[in-house]
Amino acid sequence: MNKKSILKWVTTGVLGVGVLTSVMLFGNINHANSETIHSSREIDIKDLAVKNFNIDTTKVKQFYRSDLHDDSNVVSKEVKNKALVAFTELIQDGGFKVGDYTPIYFLEGNNLSIAIKHADGSMTMTEFNISENGVPSKIHESSKEAK
């Protein structure tokens, strides 16, 4: 083999390994960014809500604050908008105050429940009907000591 042919094979091999490495590296980064990552605090609050309010997780879809961002596809845009309106109503009614923990959302049919662990150690679950066009309507609110 002459020098040109050897150089051609070495160059092709190096470029091939470089391209393969780039694809693997950027493919893993994009995969990691496309998954929603929830904090351990959010998961603990979700588990606490499930335990305290006897939520059947096989019947409800649970989601977190980060799932309400535009780039998330955990729930539909309509559900995101209604969840944000319901949470805003909860804030206006004084159900969420400075010092409270991140809300956790549970969706079952047309009912959206928002669980909030408060700074005083209590926990509330507020249920909204989101079936109508427009503002979600509050159905029920219960409060328990978080255990």
Task: Work out the helix count.
Answer: 3
Helix content: 40-55%
Rg is 24 Å
> How many structural domains are formed by the residues?
2
Distance between the termini: 77 Å
Could you explain how this protein is built, in words?
With 147 residues, the chain is of the alpha+beta class. Strand 4 and strand 5 form a beta hairpin. Residues 25-35 have low confidence and may be disordered. Helix content is 41%, strand content 22%. The chain is built from three helices and five strands; from the N terminus they run ααβαββββ. It has two domains: 1-35; 40-145, no CATH class. The longest helix is centred in the first third of the chain and has 32 residues, at 3-34. The protein has helices spanning 3-34, 40-52, 77-92, and strands at 61-64, 104-108, 111-117, 122-129, 137-145.
Quick overview:
41% of the residues lie in helices and 22% in strands. It has 147 residues and is an alpha+beta fold.
